């Protein structure tokens, strides 16, 4: 990744974090923790990795993105807004009546949303079907990217899909695990220990790539490695839930609660300076 | 009628998919969950192996994969047994198929108690209720092989989710080859003046037999094959009920939430008349031969006749 790409992505991440805080404050409900942990992942995808065109959301050879952890809709909406799919002002309609920005992503409402998600554990299966459809069309070039939460890996269907992807050798499928270690009821290791996520995917026949999910350069390298893989690849990205807002970081309580006005003001103050730089 | 005339509705599934694909429907794909031989999707797999996906014993994954394929422009048909192909994957059908209105055709087989010896765990008698409550879903229940073929074709031609209820039991022909079927249209199979028997699936031939028996008692029964449970042909049913003034519904399904409930809703709002629902009375199935079970659960033509007599006594 070039220096200018890096600077631009860092700016994009900072803007997305501010947007996430502002839209959640405006909506009064939603999921900040898992949105903030996935900012660099989504920014890298929409900023430099994926081939896509906001003016033509159904472009046939576009890469596809599935937000399997659909409750992190704010990070997707922020990424889509930064990319030009919707005006930034519309972000403030999040979760409101008649908004295109539903509480969980709705493909029928907002162009750029590939599939509707929200019920956890289904996105990787959807992505397998999308990857197979591309293969049937004789077009293996587009890649299907699927972002999963780590708590979401407790859903058994994820592993049904993991088997399927390896069985059909879906080299045009890349999963990313936002490994922030926390879920609603506590740390994932206390609620239902996931064990070694990397070893699990490896045992299922996937190419496994680990990285710091907040390092833009590590993420870019991980996506390059995934792109080169001849099997389905998973990027296990270590992240911090609530990343970028000091009082939200690593706290389960910020999984599904919106900041009030004072908290939002404090968060925006923290996010007002120079971008973190993503390293 | 000879035994060889009797065919299960499931036999129409794979065969019709092959016909459609041979007619140029390159978008059609099939998925199954380790039951391809039983559901007959294996027939499609044999001709179009690259468009068939056996996902193993993983129905939830199968349905969501089908949704992914549909989002990519394909028209996926899913197999499995009705109990697993609807109930086991209910949230996937709700959230990944119906909510985004994707063109997935849920066509599991082995619905109802006529599954027989496999017992209650495998006898799906809640599927019509589960499927018809979902927004965007259509529900078709064919009464014989010809109707099943038509139902699969309607599913292929209809944008969005469709559920086709298929069975294992061999059924006599109700329809002539080439009979016309439409989404949202019931078939009036026999005209009558005293009572309307609204049936679906395996109960249609039993309703026809019941009408014969009632005729012997001087009761003129109209027989309507509901076929399209959702959208329901409310106009035909209300018109018939309005003329006869009495209704018995007949279904191989729980009386709660199924076709009989749909008809009761329509009658209650449009033309209240005395009615009774023949169906499984809030119970699970059990092992036995299909005809033994139909007797045990009150789903024979004499049961329909008895219900008709009770309704007529209320007039």
Would you mind describing this structure in some detail?
The complex is a heterodimer of chains A (279) and B (315). With 279 residues, chain A is of the alpha/beta class. Chain A has one domain: 3-Layer(aba) Sandwich (Rossmann fold). Helices cover 40% and strands 12% of the residues of chain A. Chain A contains ten helices and seven strands. Chain A has a five-stranded parallel β-sheet with strand order 1-2-3-7-6, sandwiched between helices. In chain A, helix 5 runs parallel beside helix 6. The two termini of chain A are 13 Å apart. Chain B is an alpha/beta fold and 315 residues long. Chain B has two domains: 169 residues, Rossmann fold (3-Layer(aba) Sandwich), CATH 3.40.50.970; 127 residues, Rossmann fold. In chain B, 41% of the residues lie in helices and 17% in strands. Chain B contains 13 helices and 14 strands. In chain B, strands 3-2-4-5-7-6-12 form a seven-stranded mixed β-sheet, with helices on both faces. In chain B, helix 8 links the parallel strand 6 and strand 7. Chain B starts with 6 loop residues before the first strand and ends with a helix. The model of chain B has no long low-confidence stretch (mean pLDDT 97).
| Largest sheet properties of chain B | 7 strands, mixed
Q: Helical amount among residues of chain A, as a percent range? A: 25-40%
> In total, how many beta strands of chain B?
14
Shape of chain A: globular
Helix content of chain B: 40-55%
**If you consult CATH, what is the topology of the largest domain in chain B?**
Rossmann fold
Number of helices of chain A: 10
The multimeric state of the shown protein is: heterodimer
Strand content of chain A: 5-15%
Q: Write down how many β-strands of chain A occur, each being a DSSP E stretch of 2 or more residues.
A: 7
CATH architecture of the largest domain in chain B: 3-Layer(aba) Sandwich
How many domains make up the coordinates of chain A?
Answer: 1
CATH class of chain A: Alpha Beta
- Helix count from the secondary structure assignment of chain B: 13
What is the succession of H and E elements of chain B? EHEHHEHEHHEHEHEEEEHEEHEHEHH
Q: Let me know the largest β-sheet of chain A.
A: 5 strands, parallel
Biggest sheet strand line-up of chain B: 3-2-4-5-7-6-12
